[in-house]
Amino acid sequence: MPHSKPTSKKYQKGETIQIITRDQIRSIKIPRDPSDSINLPSAEFKRIISASQVTTKEETEALKEAYRRKKEAEFKAAEERKRQLYEIDLSRTENPALADLERDAQKWSEYLMKRVNAEMEQEEEIKNLNKLILNAQCQSIRDQQIQEKKKIQAKLSKEERRLDAMMEVDRLKALETEGQIEELQKKQRVKGMQQLHHQIQVRLEEKQLQDVTKELERQHMQETQEKMNLEDLEALEKKKLQQQRLHMEVMRINAENIQAKEQRREEERLADLRIMEYNQRKLEQEAEYEAEQKRVKREKESVISRLRTRQEKVKDYMAEQNERHARRIQEISDRQWRREQKELALKKAQEEAMLRAARMEQVHCKERFLSMEAGRERADFNRVLKVQEQALVRQKEMEEKQREKALRHADTIRQQIREHELSAIAKRREIFQQAHELTNEDHERLVRLNEVKETKLKKLRTMGLSEKCCKEVERKARDCTQNPQCEEQQNLPMMHKKSSEADLSTTFLPPISNPAKDTVRNLQYSDSNTCLPPIRNALPQRSRNQ
User: Fold this and answer.
1) For 109-161, what is each residue's pLDDT tens digit?
2) Sign of dihedral through CA atoms 205, 211, 214, 218?
3) So which residues are the signal peptide here (predicted)?
């Protein structure tokens, strides 16, 4: 069976190509070079297909029954041939050997019969009948090829749908995976926010605890100071006898206080610059505190009115020192609290800045990744588009070359057809010139023609063609017998039938071996890769030229 070599690009085994459609891009792996394909006869292809299908028990029984019937028919045919051979042998034994003259006469009659048969084969009606038979055989083979092509196309379509379904499943799986990744990222973000909120709550609780601790310490210091004041009053009342020692202690304390005062003045000078703003907010508190101290002082003065003026001065001085000491302790505590608050705020700001920087870095990384992915996909798309454009250009060039080749070959075919027509016209003229000489032989020729036709038609039925095809050949043979001018209309009776189904670029004419092969060969391309549709496009020119 002739076949054409594919003109498409050769692919290496294991290579993948990308196919871009309207809504997706998919990669297909090339399992092997398509040029290595093998064309099988239809019988072998049907045998392989039937062997690859799993049959049921009923089908197996039916096949066995058909095989058994076939064997019985073959056995009966063999018995019939055996019987015929036996009868022939029996007839030979019954009839004596012929004489030499009879054998020569028999050989001469056989020779004449062969010449008559050869001349009958050259008759136009027999030629037309041979053409009809050849066309019927070609059409039968062509129908089988079309059916095989349809089956192959159906299988290819089924495989394409299966691949599309697989790609759809892969796409749904990818979407599901992407959704799971987004859900996981969302959970991680929520978890991070919860951790951050928890840290904020812990720090607020720590701050509140520190505030409560500081308040308790302040109250404790105040209570301690009041207790010390009461103890001092009791000590003054109980230790009148120790005034001298107290006086010496006071002098020593005064000296230390003077020295401490100088030092405190320097410290206060530096501290005042730092706590000026704080003092402005504490003026009201200090006023209340001083009023309270004055009230306490008045109470103390009423209590120690019995003391001497010197003791009152000492007490006033001690109260003033204690007040300053308490104020200094309070200021130190406030400065420490403000420093801690500032450190906490600075640390919180640094953490927030780090979180913002990390978030911005993640956003930038994602943007860069998306940009790189888009660039890569764009480059792949442009590369595939360029390859497809080059393939389209090459395909157009090949189609143009094939079209020019088909036109040239069509001209050659038309020339051959014209030559054939001229030859047929010349033959008909010779027949018309000799018609008056063949009047007596017409009856015998018609009888012989009918016998040959009947023989050929019976032989055609034994070839396995369909009943419809055989009846069509018989009808056209009768039409040609009744109307001799139908010869040119019957040259290609089957070529234009089912033109829509036969428009397949891979369906080729099978090689033909018969007495009229020279006539049919003129209708074929000399190139083994030339397919049938261009012949159909070229042959109708004959009727228009006529």
Assistant:
1) 788 777 777 777 777 777 777 788 788 778 878 888 888 888 888 888 888 88
2) negative
3) none
